[in-house]
Amino acid sequence: xxxxxxxxxxxxxxxxxxxRRAILARLEREDGASVSELARPFAIKLPAIMKHLxxxxxxxxxxxxxxxxxxxxxxxxxxxxxxxxxxxRYERFWSRSLDRLAAYAERKEAEARKSGR
Amino acid sequence: xxxxTLVRRIAARPSIVFDALTxxxxxxxxxxxxAGPVLLAETDVRIGGRFRVRFRTLDGSEHExxxxxxxxxxxxxxxxxxxxxxxxxxxxxLVEIDLRATAEGTELxxxxxxxxxxxxxxxHEEGWNGALDKLQRHFS
Lengths: 117, 140
Prior knowledge:
The complex is a heterodimer. Chain A is mainly alpha-helical. Helices cover 69% and strands 12% of the residues of chain A. Chain A has 5 helices and 3 strands; from the N terminus they run ααβααββα. Chain A has helices spanning 2-15, 18-29, 35-39, 46-58, 78-114, and strands at residues 33-34, 62-67, 70-75. In chain A, helix 1 (2-15) packs across helix 5 (78-114). The longest helix of chain A is centred in the C-terminal third of the chain and has 37 residues, at 78-114. Chain A is elongated. Chain B is 26% helix and 41% strand. Chain B has helices at 14-22, 24-30, 118-126, 129-139, and strands spanning 3-10, 38-43, 50-56, 62-73, 77-84, 93-101, 106-113. The longest helix of chain B has 11 residues, at 129-139. The two termini of chain B are 12 Å apart. The A-B interface holds A 1-2, 4-5, 8-9, 12-13, 15-18, 21, 24-25, 28, 77, 80-81, 83-84, 86-87, 89-106, 108-109, 112 and B 1-2, 4, 6, 8, 10-13, 16-17, 19-21, 26, 29-34, 87, 89-91, 105-106, 108, 110, 112, 114-115, 119-120, 123, 126, 128, 131-132, 134-136, 138-140.
């Protein structure tokens, strides 16, 4: 449980950065890309991209494999799925709660109006 | 995507919605994922005050969540930390609720986020949820 929680924190922390999210979105579309291909759309230097890849790697969101001089980066979807599960659980909880909250508040509003407030 | 955002338009004025969110009487009427009963609701609605809510779901299991009120600005805004008792989802998260008065009543914006550090707040401001929603669709 503790590890699961730490893993979720790492995943969410990695996802906070827009460059890292863009990298993941691209890897989602393409089945693997080289580091220089990944760096191309960004106006930042290769070492900065490498740092982002380290964070994603530490969070288990990507894998890197080296063939010759080329490092291929691939998406590793499991931690992302765990993060989605977390969000979906809360979505269920809150979506239904807020529906009932709305109904309750609307009842209270009708009562307040009836008593002239 | 590290946060969940829900929006509801409610035909009631913000002060009524705010009280529904924070009074034990109100909470007893809506809190929980199904029609199971709220067994206990305690609130101390001031910054640093705590809440505790215990409820039973229709499958018979009982759950309890608690936390601390971090921002209390009736009737516009409420923020509180959130954790489950019993370790079903360890760790603390953040709940933020904004209430905006509209012609029809209230627009409620609800956010539950896993992280509540500076990074998260900053990225909320950047409005990146939409970007990640796209990613999320791929994974659902």
